[in-house]
């Protein structure tokens, strides 16, 4: 949608058609750097409908002769509520003399939220309604995840020296010979109520590493007044599926919840936190070593928890939502 001061916005069109009342359309169009045909169209609409005709019209066609009739759509919905498949609905309507393709039936079902049978109750009505995953108190839901990023070689990578530099070419030759720079695994834990976060950089994502991180994160949260842990939410990574990790969770929390496979939005709070530090830290500067980037991440974590405003916390830092109110740094800290 154009902004209010654009050349051919509603206000701009009204100024141009007013000029056309006393001057040739071609002259006004040349001054406004628009075609005569375009200005003639707006002038004709203005003469027929007044100022209301200068608004943008919908691009939807006025007529859709090949659209599925409403009564057929109602039949499809009624048959679907009997838990019939799209193929069976197609056969039933074909027997009644109604010509409709299976793909058309599928689109109708998607449009009305009836495309998945497991989302329908016994009466055929939609069972699943979209909703927000909301933590009711600190420690209600603690989200864990691991982000894998490429390790920066000593002296800096191609972001420092350029892709065609001698260092970049040497790194490519080393890769050809089988050398590997490796990865850094960023383990993160985030409180779903306050958005308070804790992150550590490790060289692997094994279960023993995840368990050690879990207990250190527990100590960090306890220092901020979060001592009651109800639900630990993770994805289905190998370290989180380990029985040892589940036992570690049950040693102090009530439930270990693994989200539905291939549904990262169920762990979206920590996923969004990872996106934030990726943009603001990981790729925000050219680092000369991996340790330099890790140190920068630790400094940024302090900024995130105590100083950076967060929308979910009412434009306040995450630590401000906790009863402990830990603020151990001045605002001028960098």
Automatic annotation (TrEMBL):
Segments traversing the membrane: none
Pfam family, one: HTH_32
PROSITE patterns in the record: INTEGRASE
SUPFAM superfamilies: Homeodomain-like, Ribonuclease H-like
Gene Ontology terms describing biological process: DNA integration
The name this protein goes by in its record: Transposase
Residues covered by the Integrase catalytic domain: 149-325
Database matches in InterPro entries: Homeodomain-like_sf (IPR009057), Integrase_cat-core (IPR001584), IS481-like_transpos (IPR047656), RNaseH-like_sf (IPR012337), RNaseH_sf (IPR036397)
Organism for this UniProt entry: Luteipulveratus halotolerans
One MF annotation (Gene Ontology) recorded for this entry: nucleic acid binding
